[in-house]
């Protein structure tokens, strides 16, 4: 059981991570008012915690098999920011942020499998998994380039997009046609303290079905704050429920040595790409003004350190009427934010969120500790959880939960080229138990 910390990759020779601020603490806000129907949800839900876990060697191994296959050398061999979207025909679209392509060399007595010291890489990609669980192909742009192409700032600095969570929804409200919507984080090349990019905007990409062609990228929110640390980007998690998609996000005050804060918005089905349809939780009600958004009440248990909370790349899912938030334990005692995934539960997406409860310390690959590897970005994949496919909706009682996490060596890109397992997602299955 090894440390959980955020990696940092430097661009042009060292990749930038979409999750560099993982060790940020989310400020613990006091609960706001209840939304209509919240009392009903509270009556139905119960405390939910992680009571056990086991390694999912099959899913971890499938990514290793696909990454090591040199049938093509213009496809995925490693990446981070890993999230999944179950498609209507049973396939799954996996979304990847900074992604290595190129050839993988077989394992030798000196180690590996390995990549060349300076492999081809792109800012984002998609990987398609067949209904039988076999990864089949990588989605890229021309070049090969990023699936979601970047831009350039007025002064020529790079502007790129990192994919966050995606969902399948109607093309427009009431439509029978389905499309994939992918939340994107737009970032701009910056300097200290913004080595991982200055946050610029939340966007939504639309992909057609079944061919997964990128049709458009629409701006959703361009934060008005002049201080980049105050800008909230949405999409670390998204959950569909009762005709709405709840989209979770956080600000980035950690870059200035302060704690970050979680937020949530909701959008009617079929409207994720329509910025006028978004409503932001302001602590009492859902507001059309993103500037009115209030921090979520994600808090430490009574009597514990009030600075303890979630990271800015948390994940949210549901079982029954209980909402579950999983995160690295940012702000935990004795540096536990570097080692432990914790959980919070709530009866509504806007909270209050109760916890934390310890969940697990995700294991590193063999040799990971010696190489200085870290794990980060725990993400739930409910469509792969026990009890059958759930399409991002609530898990049934008794279902386990597939949780993925990313691995990297923060101080050495050379290390992740010498051993490709040090920059690939890994998976565990969580046992969940409710109490009343």
Automatic annotation (TrEMBL):
DUF4185 domain: residues covered: 236-383
Pfam families per record: DUF4185
Protein name per Swiss-Prot or TrEMBL: DUF4185 domain-containing protein
Source taxonomy: Bacteria, Bacillati, Actinomycetota, Actinomycetes, Kitasatosporales
């Amino acid at each position: 059981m090894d440390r959980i910390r955020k990696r940092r990759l430097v661009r042009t020779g060292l990749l930038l991570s979409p999750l560099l601020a993982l060790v940020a603490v989310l400020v613990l806000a006091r609960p706001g008012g209840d939304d209509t129907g919240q009392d009903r949800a509270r009556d139905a839900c119960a405390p939910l915690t992680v009571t056990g876990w086991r390694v999912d060697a099959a899913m971890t191994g499938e990514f290793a098999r696909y990454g090591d296959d040199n049938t093509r050398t213009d496809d995925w061999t490693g990446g981070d920011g890993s999230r999944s979207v179950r498609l209507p025909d049973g396939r799954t679209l996996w979304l990847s942020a900074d992604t290595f392509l190129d050839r993988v060399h077989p394992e030798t007595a000196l180690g590996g499998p390995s990549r060349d010291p300076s492999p081809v890489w792109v800012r984002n990609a998609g990987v398609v998994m067949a209904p039988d669980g076999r990864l089949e192909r990588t989605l890229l742009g021309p070049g090969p380039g990023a699936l979601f192409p970047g831009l350039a700032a007025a002064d020529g600095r790079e502007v790129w997009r990192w994919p966050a969570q995606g969902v399948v929804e109607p093309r427009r409200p009431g439509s029978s046609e389905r499309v994939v919507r992918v939340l994107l984080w737009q970032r701009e090349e910056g300097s200290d303290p913004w080595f991982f990019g200055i946050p610029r905007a939340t966007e939504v990409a639309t992909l057609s079905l079944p061919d997964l062609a990128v049709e458009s990228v629409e701006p959703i929110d361009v934060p008005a704050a002049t201080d980049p640390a105050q800008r909230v980007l949405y999409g670390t998690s998204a959950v569909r429920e009762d005709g709405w998609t709840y989209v979770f996000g956080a600000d980035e005050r950690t870059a200035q040595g302060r704690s970050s804060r979680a937020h949530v918005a909701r959008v009617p089905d079929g409207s994720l790409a329509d910025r006028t349809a978004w409503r932001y939780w302001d602590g009492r009600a859902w507001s059309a003004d993103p500037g009115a958004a209030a921090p979520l009440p994600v808090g430490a248990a009574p009597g514990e350190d009030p600075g303890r909370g979630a990271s800015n790349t948390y994940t949210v899912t549901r079982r029954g009427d209980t909402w579950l938030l999983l995160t690295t334990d940012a702000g935990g005692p004795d540096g536990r934010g570097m080692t432990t995934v914790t959980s919070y539960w709530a009866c509504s997406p806007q909270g209050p969120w109760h916890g934390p409860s310890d969940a697990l310390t995700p294991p590193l690959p063999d040799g990971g500790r010696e190489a200085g590897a870290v794990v980060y970005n725990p993400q739930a994949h409910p469509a792969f959880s026990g009890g059958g496919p759930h399409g991002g909706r609530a898990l049934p009682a008794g279902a386990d939960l597939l949780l993925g996490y990313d691995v990297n060596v923060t101080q050495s890109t050379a290390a992740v080229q010498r051993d490709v397992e040090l920059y690939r997602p890994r998976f565990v299955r969580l046992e969940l138990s409710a109490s009343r």
